């Protein structure tokens, strides 16, 4: 039987181009059933618990499967989420988006009243679940066009003890049909227009439905042009965006939300990746 230390250094030699140090640690956490890195450190020189699981994961990784799909789950802030090839692997940029949104939402609404939040194009459910757990007095909805995607998101809501109302449908259509009025919309929609710019491993393994849009602003425009029909007196909108979309999105905001306040924000790498809009032009209840 091999120890966790031995497996760690074996992985460093075996698949240096397939997994980084963080991925190696995720593998060791998984095969031992540990919940935290501190647990792994504590038992680093002890025998690994499930070598069959280890071999299964490594064979998938060596075949080119992304580590998160090989494991079947991925971390997202304090959450652990089920991931399958039907959903995008959660990204650090999306973690930045929800932390920013949490701060603004709490500043605007904290303790005032029950607010309604919608995650459009929910994927794994990461955004909806995180906000449901962190925003006091919130009702959270999540929608996606794919029933397979929603099945994963629903599993994640159960796994993370979150009460989310899910709808199948494109963009805001379910909310228009159900006549739901919202305080907050948050979305990380597809926005890659040129598939040649996508990393080969991502393009081969992750769902194109969640990546590609023509034009890149397609799904943002769908939300902008319908937002008045689903908003309360004030609505906050948060988006993850492509780093070169500021110009195109500014034009759409001026077209559909001409009196709204809006801000573009950079990620930790200095790239413009987030859009925040506050619109209170239309008083619709």
Written overview of the protein:
- The protein has 285 residues and is an alpha/beta fold.
- The protein has 2 domains: 4-71; 92-279, Rossmann fold (3-Layer(aba) Sandwich).
- It has 12 helices and 9 strands.
- It has helices at residues 4-14, 21-32, 37-42, 51-62, 67-71, 92-109, 126-134, 147-159, 173-177, 200-205, 218-226, 246-256; strands spanning 73-76, 79-82, 115-120, 138-144, 164-168, 182-187, 231-240, 261-266, 272-279.
- A 7-stranded mixed sheet has the order 5-4-3-6-7-9-8, covered by helices on one side. Strands 1-2 form a two-stranded antiparallel ribbon.
- β4 (138-144), α8 (147-159) and β5 (164-168) form a beta-alpha-beta unit.
- α6 runs parallel beside α7.
- The longest helix has 18 residues, at 92-109.
- It is globular and about 65 Å long.
- The mean pLDDT is 92.
Q: Would you summarize the structure shown here?
A:
The chain has about 280 residues and is an alpha/beta fold. The chain contains 12 helices and 9 strands.
Supply the CATH superfamily name of the largest domain: Vaccinia Virus protein VP39
Weakly predicted, low-confidence segments: none
How many alpha or pi helices? Answer: 12
Mean pLDDT comes to 92
What are the main properties of this structure?
285 residues; globular; Rossmann fold; two-stranded antiparallel sheet; seven-stranded mixed beta sheet
Protein topology:
Elements: H1 4-14, H2 21-32, H3 37-42, H4 51-62, H5 67-71, E1 73-76, E2 79-82, H6 92-109, E3 115-120, H7 126-134, E4 138-144, H8 147-159, E5 164-168, H9 173-177, E6 182-187, H10 200-205, H11 218-226, E7 231-240, H12 246-256, E8 261-266, E9 272-279
Parallel strand pairs: 3-4, 3-6, 4-5, 6-7
Antiparallel strand pairs: 1-2, 7-9, 8-9
Helix pairs in contact: 1-2, 6-7, 11-12
């Amino acid at each position: 039987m091999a120890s966790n230390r031995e497996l760690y250094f074996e992985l460093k030699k075996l698949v240096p181009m397939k997994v980084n140090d963080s991925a190696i640690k995720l593998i060791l956490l998984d095969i031992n059933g540990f919940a935290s890195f501190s647990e792994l450190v504590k038992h680093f020189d002890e025998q690994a618990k499930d070598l069959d699981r280890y071999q299964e994961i490594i064979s998938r990784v060596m075949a080119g499967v992304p580590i998160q799909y090989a494991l079947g789950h991925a971390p997202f802030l304090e959450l652990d989420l089920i991931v399958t090839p039907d959903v995008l692997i959660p990204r650090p940029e999306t973690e930045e988006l929800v932390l920013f949104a949490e701060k603004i939402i709490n500043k605007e609404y904290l303790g005032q009243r029950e607010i309604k939040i919608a995650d459009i194009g929910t994927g794994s459910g990461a955004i909806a679940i995180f906000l449901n757990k962190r925003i006091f007095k919130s009702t959270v909805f999540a929608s996606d066009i794919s029933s397979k995607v929603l099945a994963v998101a629903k599993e994640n809501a159960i796994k993370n003890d979150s009460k989310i109302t899910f709808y199948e449908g494109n963009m805001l259509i379910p909310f228009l049909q159900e006549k739901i009025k919202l305080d907050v919309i948050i979305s990380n929609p597809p926005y890659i227009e040129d598939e040649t710019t996508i990393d080969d491993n991502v393009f081969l393994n992750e769902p194109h439905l969640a990546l590609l849009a023509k034009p890149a602003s397609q799904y943002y425009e769908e939300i902008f042009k319908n937002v008045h029909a689903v908003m309360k007196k004030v609505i906050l909108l948060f988006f993850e965006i492509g780093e070169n979309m500021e110009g195109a999105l500014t034009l759409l905001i001026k077209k559909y939300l001409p009196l709204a306040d809006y801000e573009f924000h950079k990620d930790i790498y200095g790239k413009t990746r987030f859009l925040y809009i506050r619109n209170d032009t239309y008083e619709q209840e």
